[in-house]
Amino acid sequence: MHERLPDFDMPDDEQVDLAAETFRLLADPTRIKVLWALLQGESSVACLAEIAGTSPTAVSQHLAKLRMSRLVTARRQGTFMYYSAADEHVRRLLSQALHHADHIDPERPTAQPA
Q1: Left, alpha or beta for 53 (phi > 0: left; psi -120 to 50: alpha)?
Q2: Which of 72, 84, 95, 110 is the most buried (most CB within 10 A)?
Q3: What is the spatial distance between Cα 2 and Cα 92, in angstroms, rounded to a whole number?
Q4: What is the reported pTM?
Q5: How far is CA 82 from CA 46, 47, 98, in A?
């Protein structure tokens, strides 16, 4: 049925899996705060911990996962590591999610899981 629709296009399985993994990683409030802070500029673990309201150890663990998923990059300067958001795609992804959150109608009922 869908094959007959003009311009119908589906992503391949690898794209879908990578996108789902990205959304899983972003499904954590601390990671969203850390990424948003990094979109403002490069930062250290200690500074990110203060901004996110959590411990440096917790932030380090989040950053490790974000680095593995290539959402965050790191730069070493002496004994310190400084982190940045990977690219403009991260900014757009997070901006869209936060923009969507601003426009959710609190009066609209949520869908019940099947």
Answers
A1: left
A2: 72
A3: 29
A4: 0.81
A5: 10, 10, 25
CA end-to-end span of the chain: 25
Separation of alpha carbons 31 and 55, rounded Å: 13
Question: Per this entry, what is the length of the chain?
Answer: 114
DSSP the chain: -GGGSTT-----HHHHHHHHHHHHHTSSHHHHHHHHHHHHS-B-HHHHHHHHTS-HHHHHHHHHHHHHTTSEEEEEETTEEEEEE--HHHHHHHHHHHHHHHT--TTSPPPPP-
Crossing angle (nearest 10°) for helices 45-52 and 29-40: 120
